[in-house]
């Protein structure tokens, strides 16, 4: 069964897309935890951080470049932002598809959880 993120990639579910290229997709979170809350996902299915393989290194590097570009485009790069990825049930991962949260636009507390 496809994850909700795969269904967004396949355009079966609508999303407020802020960035897309041949490797990844970024869209606004439907339950934002900050004024800026965007999810960045690879189009390649990778279940979690634990499932990343050596061959995924170039893709992961690309995702980090895209994350920085999105932060600049959305105006949070100068003031600061947080990038979060959750791994596993106890780590708070709710969708089994690797994804990065970009959070910004307000003071973010520490520790986060």
Automatic annotation (TrEMBL):
One of its GO terms (molecular function) is hydrolase activity. Its EC number is 3.-.-.-. Residues 4-113 form the HIT domain. Signal peptide: none annotated. The active site is at 99 (tele-amp-histidine intermediate). This is HIT-like protein. Coiled coil: none annotated. PROSITE patterns: HIT_1, HIT_2. InterPro entries: Histidine_triad_CS, Histidine_triad_HIT, HIT-like, HIT-like_sf. A motif (Histidine triad motif) lies at residues 97-101. It comes from the Bacteria. Keywords: Hydrolase.
């Amino acid at each position: 069964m496809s994850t909700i993120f795969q269904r967004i990639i396949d355009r079966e579910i609508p999303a407020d897309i802020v960035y897309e290229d041949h490797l990844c997709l970024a869209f606004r979170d439907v339950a934002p935890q900050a004024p800026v809350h965007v999810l960045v996902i690879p189009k390649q299915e990778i279940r979690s951080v634990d499932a990343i393989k050596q061959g995924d290194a170039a893709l992961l590097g690309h995702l980090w470049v895209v994350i920085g570009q999105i932060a600049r485009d959305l105006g949070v790069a100068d003031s600061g932002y947080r990038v979060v990825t959750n791994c596993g049930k106890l780590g708070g991962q709710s969708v089994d598809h690797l994804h990065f949260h970009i959070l910004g636009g307000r003071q973010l507390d520490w520790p986060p959880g």
